[in-house]
Amino acid sequence: MPTSPVVTRSDFPALERNLGDVQLTYLDSAATALKPQVVIDAESDFYARLDGAVHRGAHQVAVEATEIYEGTRAKVAAFIGAATEEIVWTKNATEGFNLVAYGILNATLDDRANPGSVDERLAIRPGDTIAVTQVEHHANFVPWQQLAARTGAEFHVVPVRPDGTIDLEALADLPERTRVLAFTHASNVTGALTDVAAMVAVARERGALTVLDACQSAAHLPLDMGELGVDFAAMSAHKMMGPTGVGILYGRSELLAALPPFITGGSMVALVTEQATRFMPAPMKFEAGTQMTAQIAGLSAAIDYLNGVGMGKVAAYDLELGDYLLQAVRATPGARIIGPESGERLGLVAFALGDVHPHDVGQYLDAAGIAVRVGHHCAQPVHRALGVQSSTRASIGPYTTRADIDRFADRLAGVRPFFQGTA
């Protein structure tokens, strides 16, 4: 059993914070990870010294800003096993999924106006299907639901089993004309890891594009997009100890080249005339307007920090401490774990606690300085499928300790007696 985090806790200033007369115990890393001081300093330093517009000037400040912007792109590509030109900057993962969905919508409209003018893989036609799983975060569910509605495609939902894991046997029911299969690498509700190879194999049999939600996994597991074999993947820097306001979209280079942009304007054009506009090649054609370069500088520092620790060590620690967290919740009288209690999973546990509302659970814990997430976690379909409207979720990071989980478990044990005693 792990005895200490794989990072230095003093690197994270938020952990020094007191809430009233108690010190913060942070168990909400699945929502957003705490930032090490080097990330905070990198973003601040950019504003202090390098606040130049990228790709827009020949002066030294702009050149240095561009070097950070493009250098971080290459660093992220290496971090997730991709080519540099396969990385697109977005403001978050949600925008990344929408970029792909709206790009496909634009390709579909182009195809309908001029049949055969776009890559066949990107055109949605009557009788086609767009599929997601029931466990998806709304960010990888709603854009595809909307795309289906706007193109007239069937919207197909792959169900979950009673333990909240994706029903792989139900993949056999995917229509032959499935064009998109969107799925999570690791659920933000159940913590369960998806058999990516099985999903990709079924999609390839049908000629469908695969879109992976890697928001949870990118912060806890080594990633290699080539090995995973997906066509697109999105993740958010703020879950990887980086700043808010910047996301990462991975896309196979040939698909990014064929995908039309959905935000247009400055910086993403090669030529603009009164008659027409010619776009830059990918990834720049997707990066219109002034970019979030200060946040990208912070992400660069976050990647350096994670590489310094080693994602193998982060993953091993997450596995061991995550099991300790799972056992702590399991031992709490009246607790029902939302999701599987075995198998490959990340260090997060969502649960219901008898008839006590999750918001009451969260407030009771917060009074002791313990931060957890309550609600439906932007994943209403899977909550309904598992018979609850909402849940409480505790999640760990590389800075979490056994003592944090022990404090949480001790306080959690008092929730039901407290509310039953005041009913």
What would the keywords be for this entry?
single chain, 423 residues, alpha/beta, Aspartate Aminotransferase, domain 1, Aspartate Aminotransferase, domain 2, 2 domains, seven-stranded mixed beta sheet, four-stranded antiparallel beta sheet, 17 strands, 37% helix, 16% strand, PyrdxlP-dep_Trfase_small
Structural notes for this entry:
This protein has helices at 37-49, 60-80, 93-113, 142-151, 196-206, 225-228, 253-258, 293-309, 311-330, 358-366, 380-385, 402-412, 415-422, and strands at residues 18-19, 22-23, 25-26, 87-90, 129-133, 154-158, 178-184, 209-213, 232-236, 247-251, 269-272, 277-279, 335-338, 348-353, 370-371, 373-375, 391-395. It is α/β, with parallel strands linked by helices. It folds into two domains: 9-30 and 310-422, Aspartate Aminotransferase, domain 1; 43-307, Aspartate Aminotransferase, domain 2 (3-Layer(aba) Sandwich), CATH 3.40.640.10. The strands form five sheets. It has a seven-stranded mixed β-sheet with strand order 4-10-9-8-7-5-6, sandwiched between helices. The protein is globular. The model has no long low-confidence stretch (mean pLDDT 96). GO terms for molecular function: cysteine desulfurase activity; pyridoxal phosphate binding. It is an enzyme of class 2 (transferase).
